Amino acid sequence: MKIRALGVLSGAVGDREKGEEFEVPADIGKGLIVRGYAEEVVEKNVKPAKVEPAKE
């Protein structure tokens, strides 16, 4: 799970600065979010550009 620190964090997730985005196991991330220390980062699915067929 990808999360963003809402303040300075230190401990099991290492030392993180406010606004830093990082990956954590889902159970740890959910715990940080519930306690208000982090927010989940929702990655937008980027659609690949349409590939033009080759003109022969």
Biggest beta sheet summary: 3 strands, antiparallel
Give helix % range.
10-25%
Count every beta strand, where a strand is a DSSP E run of 2 or more residues: 3
Q: Low-confidence parts, pLDDT < 50 over ≥5 residues?
A: none
Radius of gyration: 17 Å
Class derived from helix and strand content = alpha+beta
Pattern of helices and strands: EEHE
Shape: elongated
Strand order of the largest sheet: 2-1-3
Beta-strand portion reads 15-25%
Instruction: Please state the average pLDDT score.
Output: 86
Distance between the termini: 46 Å
Q: If helices are DSSP runs of H or I spanning 4 or more residues, what is the number of helices?
A: 1
Walk me through the structure.
16% of the residues lie in helices and 18% in strands. The mean pLDDT is 86. It is built from one helix and three strands; from the N terminus they run ββαβ. It is α+β, with helices and mostly antiparallel strands and 56 residues long. It has a three-stranded antiparallel beta sheet with strand order 2-1-3, with helices on one face.
Core attributes:
alpha+beta; three-stranded antiparallel β-sheet; 3 strands; 1 helix; 56 residues; 18% strand
Question: Secondary-structure map with pairings?
Answer:
Elements: E1 2-5, E2 21-23, H1 26-34, E3 38-40
Antiparallel strand pairs: 1-2, 1-3
